[in-house]
What we know:
There is one protein chain. This protein is an all-alpha fold. Helix content is 78%, strand content 0%. The longest helix is centred in the N-terminal third of the chain and has 50 residues, at 63-112. The termini are far apart.
Amino acid sequence: IFALVLAPRIRAAELYTIPDKVAEAYGKPAGVTAAVFSYCLTTPAPYVLMLGTLLQLIFGWPLWPSLLVGVALSTVYVYSGGFRSDVRVNIVQFILMFSCFALIIPYCLSAFGGLDFIRAHVPENHLVWHGGNSPQYVIAWFFIALWTLVDPGFHQRCYAATSPKVATRGVLVSILCWAVFDFMTCTVGLYARAGLPDIEPVMAYPLLAEKLLPAGVKGLFYVGMLATVMSTLVSFMFLSGTTFARDFVWRIEGGDPDHRINQRTALGLVLTTVISLVLAVGVASVVKLWYVIGTVFIPSLLLPLLSAYWPALRVRRGVIVPVMLGGFLGSLLWLLWGVMHQTDMGPQYPLGVEPMYPGLLISCLGFALGRIGRLADALPAASPPVGGAE
């Protein structure tokens, strides 16, 4: 959907960021609100946690120093090199991350065997499409996957493409690469579950490498894992810094968007680092971080952003900020209720409904009312009776 429908429109808009487009369609208050939510969506907290855990395993450090070192290394070269360094380093990291997982699969086949071994040694739910989860939970993750449509990284890279065709082709090629890479990582993950059943899931890849790979090859695998995490972490650090500097501070202060851009970006990177560290330590689960961030912020941005690219879907300007805040608060309050009433079975949400749905419902209702109001505004005014007083 993004590649074929959105990417050409994004590139044709010739802007820079998501808040640029929202502000163009709905005005400055909506742009500032979108900037806040975009900044929250770009938090690199899940990848900070991944990198810290990996460094902890490799060097035997406590988690806090591992997190700090990982964030410091990522932040420094993003600040010094910006988008260009992010792109260049990503090319190297792309090669390393694919190579390391392509390398370990033959060792898994040699040590354990093929699919029959996996079938015999993993829980049955690991090999069914729903994973043992309820339809409502699976559908909630589908909506979280709509993150793609509001992901600032996708939009900025499409804005940076030389043409709409290049933007579309780039996303399509990326889809193919993701499919291949996810196939490899899931395969290795299944082998880790089958061959090392009593380990912490977060340690699956490193401990499998310790068991199967010889010296040298194991080092390359660790480098590939670091590249996998850092490529995304660095991109999100860059997005967070620029979102704070250009989309938030500049929209409030006004003036030249390039004025004091380096100082603003540095402040944004510091703020991002602090928030990411707090979230990484407080939540301590990559999957939970993805779930919480997507659940809370996607309902606030999805319809406002899509309507910005399709004028026929737009609502009154005065409606859009309440709609965005309503979608955000609806999901957030629902989520907090579930966490506050948590049992051994996990969060207990009202009516058993996942928190993504109330936020989306509020956003949809707000848009429906806003569309009715805009259509009413477009109707011609009634003509006065002929004959004046009569």
